[in-house]
Amino acid sequence: MQIGTALPNLHLLQPQGVNFKCNAQTVKTISSSTEMTKKHISNLEKLLQKTNPIDSSRPVIEPSSNRLIENRRKNLLEGLNLANIWPDEMRKAAEDMSPRHLNRLKRLLSSKSMEYSPRNNLANRWREYHGSNNWLGLLDPLDENLRRELVRYGEFIQSAYHCFHTDPATSADEVLPERHVALPDRSYKVTKSLYATSSIGLPKWVDDVAPDLRWMTQRSSWIGYVAVCDDRSEIQRMGRRDIVIALRGTATCLEWAENFRDLLVEQNDNNDEGVVQSKVECGFLSLYKTSDHRVPSLAESVVNEVQRLIEKYKGEPLSITVTGHSLGAALSLLVADDLSTCVPNAPPVAVFSFGGPRVGNRGFADRLNDNNVKVLRIVNNQDVITRVPGMFVSESLDKKLRESGAGRVLEMLDCRMPWAYSHVGTEFRVDTKMSPFLKPNADVACCHDLEAYLHLVDGFTASNCPFRPNAKRSLVRLLNEQRSNFKRLYTSKGKDLTINLDREHNFPTSSCLPSPSS
């Protein structure tokens, strides 16, 4: 009996007593006929998934009878002994061509955004999700509501990137205007554009040499925005009116130059005895505090706008959420510190940072903790940016030394050493290697990419669990930006599904690092 003619007619066979055998010649014939085998697999899947219409003239089958039919089907497959008939290559081809696999991949590669977790009511627990208890019990395993909040705030940062890359240049003389930002959440509205100014100035001849790249050397650049929730139903769902400050990462030459000014400098004039002097990175503080003749400093703009909004919505429950990626994550800490100290009766302040570097010393970290600023740092295990600037000192070792009584010695070192940095807040760690789509040896740019961060957060279940199989975040933007870091299987599938990434989904990059493979 020929296998090629028998498989399409398996419904004629009875499960009892099947003794399905094949010789070596049969196996050789099947191996040389891959296309026919795939067709048979498809027919077999249709057979097993097919449900007979209910005939009212026949008695209703009880659940026990259903189980009997399933057992017969299972015995039939075991009798066929397909694992021995088909080589490993054919079984892999069958798995790759599975309709369920292809349909799921097609949904992930769709440009349409999908719900990645439930949009539940947070009114009774909003303070907990905003960090009142340092997200205790919500991170490992990751709470579904918190996952949605993290991805949502990450998309606010993506809007900042998109707005800047759409129009990066600013006038050299005119007052810088408000910008239109395409927010991912329509329940929010932008109330203020934010600009960061570098204290470094380049000679004019640099602009004359490359006038088309003038935006790369401009001192003041659009870096983010302030937005406020303005939808009653969303305010009711969240339990408060939320004020968001979103900040993008490094994009211009002068911002890069400020990043490398990594000496710690004093933040203020507080010299109280017994208190570790708060210090922050020189370049970050420069971008935050420097003003321009056209625009005030980032510090002044943020504080004034938040004070205005607090006064406008006086009497309502409010929250302040500061979110940023890379350089924006560093500036987010400076913003949160200012809001907690300079704004009287400030609402609860929380920071959600993605791929953020170290910003200050232990005194700065203690200052934020004392002011009740809640910080959740989302960190990719392969992202080197999260381990700079400063010395590569283990955070756990630092904690153990302080608990062992050596804290005073370390505080003295913090005061004297110009690179004694310390991280702030609670850490939520993800890992590129956990993604089934990304290469385990993905380059630095991919590991630091904001969309890669959101992809990993969306797929995270727990530290001891694999990537969640029901992750639904679209892969189009990630594949478009990090195609060389995708596993070959999924890159080829994207082409097979006729998805034109270059023409139809031309998203601006969110990473502040160029890809070495580009």
TrEMBL record:
Lineage: Eukaryota, Viridiplantae, Streptophyta, Embryophyta, Tracheophyta
Pfam families the record matches: Lipase_3 (PF01764)
SUPFAM superfamilies linked: alpha/beta-Hydrolases
Organism: Solanum lycopersicum (Tomato)
Name the record gives this protein: Fungal lipase-type domain-containing protein
Gene Ontology BP annotations: lipid catabolic process
Family: Belongs to the AB hydrolase superfamily. Lipase family.
PANTHER family membership: PHOSPHOLIPASE A1-IBETA2, CHLOROPLASTIC
Lineage top rank: taxon: Eukaryota
Subcellular location: Plastid, Chloroplast
